[in-house]
Sequence to fold (169 residues):
Amino acid sequence: MSDTIAIFASARRNGNTGKFIDWIGNELDIEIIDLSGKNISAYDYEHKNLDDDFIPLMNQLLDYEKIIFVTPVYWFAASAQMKVFIDRTSDFLDLEELKDMGQRLRNKSGYIVCTSTSNEAAPSFLNSFKDTFEYLGMNYGGHVHANCENDYSPGEYIEDVERFVKLFK
Ligand SMILES: Cc1cc2nc3c(=O)[nH]c(=O)nc-3n(C[C@H](O)[C@H](O)[C@H](O)COP(=O)(O)O)c2cc1C
Fold:
């Protein structure tokens, strides 16, 4: 079994980010989980949503050492669906019975696969992931970005993808 899994969240499955992670996922031979197929609701201080898909999904992710977060840059940040998922990790901090799950994230490595219409992923976007990984005790493994200003053009990112895939070998 691979030690790597990807979680994907975009407003469309087969858009720029979806195509980019399909290529990378194929190179790495990993599973890609689409958050749009999951029922995960926004963080709730009263935790009335504990029965949704968040905890089963987290249990699945915790079997892997390397987790790739896949999202387009929307307004200098992650997609709303990805943000909802990340917000829900606060459940681990709030609830005694979930603290062990939060602890299990420690020392795992987080990676980012992203697309935007800029030369580079926005620093605010990357830093929000890096700071979140650090807060959760995870290592930052690296990122790869595709500039889709002129549509998704895979020929332009071959070297970047090769460099990224090597991080997992
Ligand atoms: C709501 C929205 C916000 C966006 N915000 C940014 C942005 O802040 N910076 C940027 O470079 N591109 C931005 N873009 C462009 C997307 O990041 C880019 O088109 C990306 O490749 C779309 O991926 P997708 O096909 O998976 O949605 C935005 C696009 C949308 C729809």
Q: What stands out?
A: Residues 10-12, 15-18, 72-76, 115-118, 122, 148 surround flavin mononucleotide (CB under 6 Å). The chain is about 35% helix and 20% strand.
